[in-house]
Amino acid sequence: MNSQPSQSLLEADEPSPVRIINPNGRASFLLIGDHAGNRVPRALEPFGVAEADLERHIGWDIGIAALGGMLADRLDATFIAQRYSRLVIDCNRSPDAVDAMPLVSDGTPIPANATLDSAARAARIAAIHAPYQAAIAAELERRDAAGEDTVLVALHSFTPAMRGFARPWQIGVLHGGGDEAYANRVLAALEARGDLVVGDNEPYAMDTIDFTIPNHAFAAGRRYVETEIRQDLLTSEAQIRDWAEILQQVLSAAL
C-alpha cells in the first residue's frame, strides 16, 4: 500500500502547495489556479508517470502559472496558485471524489494511485488540497472582514483534442450556479470582440464535479468566473502576454 502519514508527505525542503503572488494586490479580483503546478512529492516516488506525461495536460493546466502571474501584475490582483500535479490530487474536485486521485487520466494509467488506502488519500488531502483551499478561504475571510468586494477568477486551460475530438474553442467561460451575472458579462465581453471562438460552458460545463468555485462562491453569493483557454494558445511568452491583455480588458469591462 502507498501509505504515508500526512505530516511527512511533504518534506521540510519541498515547496508549499500554495504560492501567493502579489499578496497585497489592491484589485477586487482574486485569481486562483487549481492546477498551476505539476510537482510530485518525493515521498510518492516512483509515481510511475513519465516526466513527459506530467508536462502534458493530464499533469497540470499548461500555461496557467505564467498567465496568472502576468495577469496579477496587470490587474494588481492577488493570484493563489497550487504547485502540485492534479494527478497527485485534483484541487478542483471534492477531496472524497473518486477522481480526485485518478486511476487513469485521458487513457494514461497512474500507477501510484492504483493501491491507495484511506491513510494515503488522507495524507494527500492534508498536505496539498486542504492548505490550498484554506488559503483561498483565509484571503476571502480577510477581504470580507475589511469590507472589500471580491470577484473570484479561476484560471484553467484545456487540451486542443480529447479522445480524438477536436475542440475549436479558444476560450471557454464556465458558470453553473450561484451569482452567474458576472460570468455572463465576461462571456458577452469576449463574444463582442468578434475575433475569438468562445465557448459558453464549453469545452466543460460547470457542474457538480467542480469544487473550488462552488465551494467559495455559490453560498456566499460571490461574483465569479471560471475561464478555460486552449493550451496550444499558451505555449509562448508572446501568446501568454496576449491572453493576459485580453483577460485584463474583459475582466475589467465586466465589472
Automatic annotation (TrEMBL):
Q: Which domain of life is it from?
A: Bacteria
UniProt-recorded name of the protein: N-formylglutamate amidohydrolase
- What is the source species? Sphingomonas panacis
